[in-house]
C-alpha cells in the first residue's frame, strides 16, 4: 500500500484541515473583536472565558470521551467545533455590517457579541476534545504499540501544527488587509463548513481501515472478567473469584450517575474532582506536571512577547518573521526527536531537551542586565527546538503509560492544568503591565521552566533509577561486579 492510500496519510490530512481551521479562526477572531470593540477588552474577556471553560470542563469532556465510542466522539467534537466556529463568525459579520445600536437600545448588538464569544468558547472546548480523541487515543491505537511509529506520527502532527501557525495567518491576514475583517470572518465560515465534510469523510475512512479503533477497553476490571482465562470451566476455588468480579461489576454499574436525580452541574463537578485525583495518581504525574509548568512563561513568543517586542520598536514584519523562525526551529526539533529517541531513549531525550532549553533561555536572563532591550531572540530561537522535543517526549510518555480507559479524562485534566498555568501567566502580566518590568516576567518564566525540569527529573529518576547522562559508563567502571541485568537497566 502506498503512503497516499494509507490510513496514516488520511489521518494527517484530516488533522491538517482541523489545525488550519483552528489557526485561521484564532487569528481572525482577535482582529474581529478589536474591530468591534475598538480596544483589547473583548479579546481579554474572550481569553478569560475560554480559560475558565477549559479549566473547569476539560476533564468532563475527557471523561465523556472515555465513555463514548471513538468514532462517535470524533464526529461529535468535530461537528460541534466547526458548527460553533461558523455560527460565531456569522454573528461577528452581522455585528460589523449592520448598525444595531438603535435596536433595543443596543441590546441586540450586545447579545450577538455575547453569542459569538459563547460559541467561540464552545469551539475551544470541543477542539480540545478533538485533539484528545485524535492525538492522545487514535494515534496510539493506529501505531499498535510500535514506539518508533508513535514517535514518528507525533512528530508529524507537531510539524503540521507548527506549519499552520506559520502559514495560515498569512492567508487570512492578506485577505483582511486587502479587503476587510468581515471578509476574513466570511472565509472562516465557508472554510469550516466545507472542511467539516472532508474531515468527516476522512475520519470515517480511517476508522474503517483500522479495525482496532472499533474495540475500546472500558476498564481493567472488565478486561480481566472477559479474558479467555476467565470464561473456561470453573476450577475448584474459582467461584470466589467470580463472585468477587461480579461484585465489582455491580459496584461499577451502581456508580453511574443518576441523571434524573442529580444536576448536571454537580455531575460535572464530581467528574472534575475525580479526574484531578486520577491525574495525580498516575505514575507519569511528575512528567505531566513538568509539561504544564512550560505554559507559565512569556518566552514562547505568544501575544505577550510580541506585544513587548513591538513596544520596544521592532516592526510588525520583523516580528512575524521572528515568529516564523521560532516555529521553524520547532519543526527542526520535531525532525531530531525521533532520531534522538531511537538512539538514547525516550526519557533521556526529554531530560536532555529540558536541560538544553534551560541553558538556551539563560541567555534571556543575561539580557536583562545587558544594555538595550530585555528581548533576546537568540535565546528564544535556540531554545525553541528543545522546547518542542521536551513536549514530544512527555506526550509520548503519557501515551505509553496511561491506561486506555483513562486517556480522555487524564488528558482533559492535562489541558486544564496547562490552561491554569497559562492563566497565572496572564494574571502576572496584568499585575506587571509596564514593559520595564518585563525582565521580572522573564525571571519568573525561567524559574517555572526550572521547576518543570526538576519535576521531570523526579520522573526520570523513578523511571531510569538515575539522572546521570553517562550512568552506564560509571556503572561499568565502578560497579564491575554488577549483574548483566543491572547494567542493562542502568542504560535505559
UniProtKB/TrEMBL annotation:
Keywords, alphabetical: Ion transport, Membrane, Transmembrane, Transmembrane helix, Transport
Keyword Endoplasmic reticulum: no
Membrane disposition: Multi-pass membrane protein
Parts of the chain that traverse the membrane: 42-65, 77-95, 107-126, 156-175, 181-207, 318-339, 351-370, 438-459
GO cellular component terms, semicolon-separated: membrane
A Gene Ontology molecular function term of the record: iron ion transmembrane transporter activity
InterPro entries, sorted: Ferroportin-1 (IPR009716), MFS_trans_sf (IPR036259)
Domain of life: Eukaryota
Chief localisation class: membrane
Pfam families attached to this UniProt entry: FPN1
UniProt similarity note: Belongs to the ferroportin (FP) (TC 2.A.100) family. SLC40A subfamily.
PANTHER family xrefs: SOLUTE CARRIER FAMILY 40 MEMBER
Function description: May be involved in iron transport and iron homeostasis.
Record's protein name: Solute carrier family 40 member
Gene source species: Plectus sambesii
Amino acid at each position: 500500500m502506498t503512503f497516499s492510500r494509507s490510513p496514516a496519510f488520511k489521518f494527517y490530512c484530516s488533522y491538517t484541515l482541523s489545525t488550519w481551521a483552528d489557526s485561521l479562526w484564532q487569528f481572525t477572531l482577535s482582529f474581529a473583536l478589536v474591530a468591534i470593540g475598538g480596544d483589547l477588552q473583548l479579546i481579554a474577556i474572550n481569553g478569560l472565558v475560554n480559560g475558565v471553560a477549559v479549566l473547569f470542563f476539560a476533564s468532563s469532556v475527557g471523561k465523556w470521551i472515555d465513555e463514548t465510542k471513538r468514532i462517535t466522539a470524533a464526529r461529535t467534537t468535530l461537528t460541534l467545533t466547526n458548527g460553533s466556529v461558523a455560527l460565531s463568525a456569522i454573528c461577528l459579520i452581522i455585528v460589523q455590517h449592520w448598525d444595531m445600536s438603535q435596536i433595543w437600545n443596543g441590546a441586540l448588538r450586545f447579545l450577538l457579541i455575547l453569542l459569538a464569544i459563547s460559541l467561540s468558547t464552545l469551539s475551544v472546548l470541543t477542539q480540545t476534545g478533538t485533539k484528545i480523541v485524535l492525538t492522545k487515543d487514535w494515534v496510539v491505537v493506529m501505531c499498535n504499540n510500535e514506539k518508533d511509529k508513535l514517535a514518528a506520527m507525533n512528530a508529524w502532527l507537531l510539524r503540521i501544527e507548527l506549519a499552520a501557525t506559520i502559514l495560515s495567518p498569512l492567508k487570512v491576514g492578506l485577505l483582511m488587509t486587502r479587503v476587510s475583517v468581515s471578509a476574513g470572518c466570511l472565509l472562516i465560515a465557508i472554510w469550516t463548513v466545507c472542511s467539516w465534510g472532508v474531515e468527516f469523510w476522512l475520519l470515517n475512512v480511517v476508522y474503517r481501515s483500522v479495525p482496532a479503533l472499533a474495540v475500546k477497553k472500558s476498564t481493567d476490571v472488565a478486561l480481566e472478567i472477559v479474558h479467555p482465562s476467565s470464561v473456561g470451566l470453573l476450577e475448584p476455588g474459582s467461584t470466589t473469584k467470580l463472585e468477587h468480579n461480579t461484585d465489582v461489576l455491580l459496584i461499577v454499574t451502581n456508580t453511574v450517575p443518576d441523571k434524573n436525580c442529580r444536576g448536571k452541574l454537580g455531575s460535572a463537578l464530581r467528574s472534575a474532582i475525580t479526574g484531578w485525583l486520577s491525574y495525580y495518581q498516575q505514575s507519569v504525574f511528575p512528567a505531566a506536571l513538568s509539561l504544564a509548568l512550560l505554559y507559565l512563561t512569556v518566552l514562547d513568543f505568544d501575544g505577550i512577547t510580541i506585544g513587548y517586542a513591538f513596544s520596544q520598536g521592532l516592526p510588525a514584519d520583523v516580528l512575524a518573521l521572528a515568529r516564523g523562525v521560532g516555529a521553524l526551529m520547532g519543526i527542526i526539533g520535531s525532525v531530531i526527536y525521533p532520531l534522538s529517541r531511537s538512539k538514547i531513549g525516550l526519557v533521556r531525550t526529554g531530560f536532555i531537551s529540558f536541560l538544553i532549553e534551560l541553558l538556551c533561555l539563560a541567555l534571556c536572563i543575561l539580557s536583562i542586565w545587558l544594555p538595550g532591550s530585555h528581548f533576546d531572540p537568540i535565546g528564544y530561537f535556540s531554545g525553541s527546538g528543545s522546547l518542542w522535543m521536551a513536549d514530544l517526549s512527555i506526550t509520548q510518555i503519557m501515551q505509553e503509560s496511561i491506561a486506555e480507559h483513562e486517556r480522555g479524562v487524564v488528558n482533559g485534566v492535562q489541558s486544564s492544568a496547562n490552561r491554569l498555568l497559562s492563566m497565572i501567566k496572564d494574571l502576572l502580566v496584568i499585575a506587571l503591565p509596564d514593559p520595564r518590568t518585563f525582565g521580572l516576567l522573564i525571571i519568573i518564566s525561567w524559574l517555572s521552566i526550572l521547576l518543570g525540569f526538576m519535576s521531570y527529573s523526579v520522573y526520570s529518576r523513578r523511571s531510569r533509577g538515575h539522572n546521570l547522562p553517562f550512568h552506564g559508563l560509571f556503572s561499568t567502571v565502578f560497579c564491575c561486579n554488577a549483574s548483566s541485568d543491572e547494567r542493562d537497566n542502568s542504560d535505559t
